[in-house]
Amino acid sequence: MKRICLTLFACCCLLFSCKKEAADTIQIRVQNATPLQIEQIHISGGADAEITFESLPAGFTTGYRTAGSPEIVTPQCKIYVRGLQDPFVSSDNDLSRLRPGQYTCHVTYINALPTIKFTKE
Fold this sequence. Notes:
This protein is an all-beta fold. It has one domain (about 5-120). Helices cover about 0% and strands about 55% of the residues. The protein has no helices and 9 strands. It has strands spanning about 5-10, 15-20, 25-30, 40-45, 50-55, 65-70, 75-80, 100-110, 115-120. The strands form 2 sheets. Strands 5-4-7-8-9 form a 5-stranded antiparallel beta sheet, with no helix packed on it. Strands 1-2-3-6 form a 4-stranded antiparallel beta sheet, with no helix packed on it. A hairpin with a 2-residue loop joins strand 8 and strand 9 (about 115-120). The chain is elongated and about 35 Å long.
């Protein structure tokens, strides 16, 4: 089985990486290199592929979890962060620093290269 590792997108030290070990599945892991605890990241890749990462302390890296097939689904995730005294700044296309609140990130595949776009709700 061929193993391919790709860095998806580095966003405020929230690092999403993915690997493809089979033709029909993508696996995602998250590294929280922020100074914040991330309460929850929920990735939905359709009815058969839902992942929830709970309580990611600062500096923690999750294991890989199956997120579905890029040919079939476009995974989405919700990120919940504890409140901060000093809010972080975000931009339209990426999350340079986190603010307290809930974020939606859209994972899309263009020419087999995955990208993530964050939007604050």
